[in-house]
C-alpha cells in the first residue's frame, strides 16, 4: 500500500503559555478571557496600556490627549547606544512615543481622566515626556473637575538618560496633584507590577485612595540594591502589595477583573 507522506501537524505557536508563578501551562485564550490573569493561581500577567484602557473604560470612550509628545535627548546621553537611538527602537517596538498614555474616558458612564504608565517602554521609566503628560492630565482634571485615575506600571523609576530633567518630574507631578487636591479632586492610584523608584516615591503613592493588584512589586529600591548599599536584610515579600496593605501603604488589593466595578463604586461613594 502506498503511504502518503504528510508533514506532521504541530501545535501553532503561542497557543499555550507558562505561568511564571505556579509554572502551569495554560491556554492563552483562557487567560486572556480572565483579563490576563492565570486561571490556576490568579497571577496577574503584564498588560499593555491600550489593553488596560479597554479593560477599565467603556467601549470607544477614550479620548487620548497629547499623543505626539516625544523626548528630544537634551543631554545627548550615550551608554551602550545613544539615547536617541534607544528611543527610536522603543518607539518601533511598542508603537508608543513614550511610556505614558493619558486622556479622558468613561467608567460605567462616569467621566474620568485616566493616565497609564506602560512597562513595555523602557520599563515604564519616567522621563520628561511622562512627567509632562501626567502633569497636563492632572491640570485638565482640575480644570474639568473630574476624578483622576493613574495606573502605574513603572519598574524603572526616573529615567537616568535625562538626568535632573527626569528627577524634577517627581516634584512637578506632585505639585500638580497638590493643586488638584486643593481644588477638591478625587485621585485614585492603581499600583500594578512593578511600581518602583521615583514613580513609587511620587505620584503612585499620593492617591486619596490607593488600590493595588495582587502580588504587585511596589517600592523604591530593590532588595539587592538595599543589601548592596546598607547591608540590610528585609522581610520576605516586603515589597509586595500584600505587605504594603498590612502596613497601611495600600488601601485595598483588587483583582483585575473587579477593578472597573470597584473604581466606579469609589467614585460614586466619594461624590455623594
From TrEMBL:
A zinc finger (C4-type) spans 19-41. Keywords: ATP-binding, Cytoplasm, Fatty acid biosynthesis, Fatty acid metabolism, Lipid biosynthesis, Lipid metabolism, Metal-binding, Nucleotide-binding, Transferase, Zinc, Zinc-finger. It is an enzyme of class 2 (transferase). Its cofactor is Zn(2+). It catalyses: N(6)-carboxybiotinyl-L-lysyl-[protein] + acetyl-CoA = N(6)-biotinyl-L-lysyl-[protein] + malonyl-CoA. One of its GO terms (molecular function) is carboxyl- or carbamoyltransferase activity. Gene3D superfamilies: 2-enoyl-CoA Hydratase, Chain A, domain 1. The keyword Repeat does not apply. Its EC number is 2.1.3.15. Zn(2+) binds at residues 19, 22, 38, 41. One of its GO terms (biological process) is fatty acid biosynthetic process. It comes from the Bacteria. It is found in: Cytoplasm. HAMAP family: AcetylCoA_CT_beta. Acetyl-CoA carboxylase is a heterohexamer composed of biotin carboxyl carrier protein (AccB), biotin carboxylase (AccC) and two subunits each of ACCase subunit alpha (AccA) and ACCase subunit beta (AccD). NCBIfam families: accD (TIGR00515). Component of the acetyl coenzyme A carboxylase (ACC) complex. Biotin carboxylase (BC) catalyzes the carboxylation of biotin on its carrier protein (BCCP) and then the CO(2) group is transferred by the transcarboxylase to acetyl-CoA to form malonyl-CoA. Belongs to the AccD/PCCB family. This is Acetyl-coenzyme A carboxylase carboxyl transferase subunit beta. It comes from Tuwongella immobilis.
